[in-house]
Amino acid sequence: MGIKNFKPTTPGLRHASLCDFSELTKHTPEKSLLTPLKKSGGRNNYGRVTSRHRGGGHKRMYRLIDFKRDRLNEPAVVLGIEYDPNRSVRIALIEYQNDKLRNYVLAPLEMKVGDVILSTDNENPEIKVGNCLPLSRIPMGTPIHNIELHPGRGGKIVRSAGTSAQLLGKEKDYAVLRLPSGEMRRVMVNCRATIGQLSNPEHGSQSIGKAGRNRWLGIRGQSRGVVMNPVDHPHGGGEGKTPQGNPHPVTPWGKPTKGFKTRKRKNSDQFIIKRRK
Hints:
Order of helices and strands: EHEEEEEEEEEEEEEEEHE
Helix content: under 10%
Largest sheet: 7 strands, antiparallel
Oligomer: single chain
Number of domains: 2
């Protein structure tokens, strides 16, 4: 697993730094765990663009990931580590030894083919990378990922490449976590999490090298507001290079942006001990 640099034989390769995919052990996905993925092009059911700069991209199939890990005390063996085009982290194909059922799970950094992983609620579980346990059974200081926010609903946070949260303490019915953003948060101790740091930590170190690679990912180019006409953006217009003007800076629809706080739902305030900033 690492970053691959290229000889500058073309302008697109001159600045490209991409993953070498050396950690992959299986290159054909499990057909029973694939489902079609329809693209919206950023448009809603009226055909209007509601999310700009989206469209095109390579055709993909969605991999069904088991975020719940609710098959308790059933050992599963890791059959392979695969690439998932829908997420930054690698995924692992596992097979339960009881009935040979196969599932995809998020692959931690140290997971290898042949490893046996387990999801359990036992009193003294094995603290092993890939095992899924309630927070009440996990020792302090352990790196964890795929953490539930409500018991039984499946992991919702800490699911992207190279991330992990740290279990700092336990207070009655709640565990205190330090999230990758730096936020400290309370989560119920009967919520489940998986041991280990997620794979592909070099994801953030990649350089795409050319705009076309973003188009393959379904990301279209953006234009700055100051280069538009006044009819298209509040920052547009003027002779030559013109500053943003007032009110500044704003979105194309006139709402403040670049640091303006838009958070309205405060339901989770009671669980947040320290904010990420």
